[in-house]
TrEMBL record:
InterPro entries: ARM-like, ARM-type_fold, PBS_lyase_HEAT. GO terms for molecular function: oxidoreductase activity. The keyword Cell inner membrane does not apply. This is HEAT repeat domain-containing protein. Keywords: Antenna complex, Phycobilisome. It comes from Gomphosphaeria aponina SAG 52.96 = DSM 107014.
Amino acid sequence: MSQLSVSEISAQLESSNSRDRMVALAALREVPAEQAVPLIKKVLNDEMLQVRSMAVFALGVKQTEECYPILVKLLETDPDYGIRADAAGALGYLADSRAYEPLVRAFYEDTNWLVRFSAAVSLGNLKDIRAKEVLIAALDSEEVVLQQAAIAALGEIKAVEAVDKILRFVQSEDWLIKQRLAEALGNLKTEKSISALKYLAKDSHPQVQQAATISLQRLAAD
C-alpha cells in the first residue's frame, strides 16, 4: 500500500468504518509527532474501544507537550479500565518524570489490577528510584502479574536495596516470576544476586535458565 498523505489520513479517521480509522492510525507511524497528535486527538473519544486504545498508545509514541496532560487525564478519569491501563502504559513510553506521581496514585487507588499492572511497569520505564517503596509494596500483591511487574520494575530502577525483598521469589512455582527475577538481578549487582543467579541458571525451566545465564554474563562484564 502506498503511503497515505496527512490529509488522506485525516479524512480516513472520519470514516464510518472502524477498520479504516485503525488503518489511518497505523499510518500515522510515518507522520511527525507535531502533525500526528492533532489527528490522534480526533479519535480519542471514538465509539470503538479498539480505536481509542490505539489512539492512546499512539500518544505515548508521538510525543509532544500536549500528550502528557491528555494521558494523565485519561488515567485519572476515564471510565474504561482498559483505556486507563493504556494511558498508564503510554506514560511509561513518554519517560517524563512528571508521570511518577500520577502513576503512583493509579497504583494505589485504581481498583482494577490491569491499570495497577500498567502503572507498575511504567514506573520501571521511568527509571525513577523514588518508585522503590511502591514497588516493594507491590511484591505483597495477591495478583501474580503485579508481583512480576514489580520485580521487573525494581530491576529497571536499579533498586539494589530491594535485592533481599525479591530474593524470596527464587523458589516460586511460577516460572515467569523466576524469569523476571533473573532478569532483574542482572541490573542489581550484589553477592546475593550472583549467588541466586547461579541457582536459577540450573532451574528446570529453560527460559529461567537462559535469563539467569544472560544476567550472570552482564554482571561479569560490568
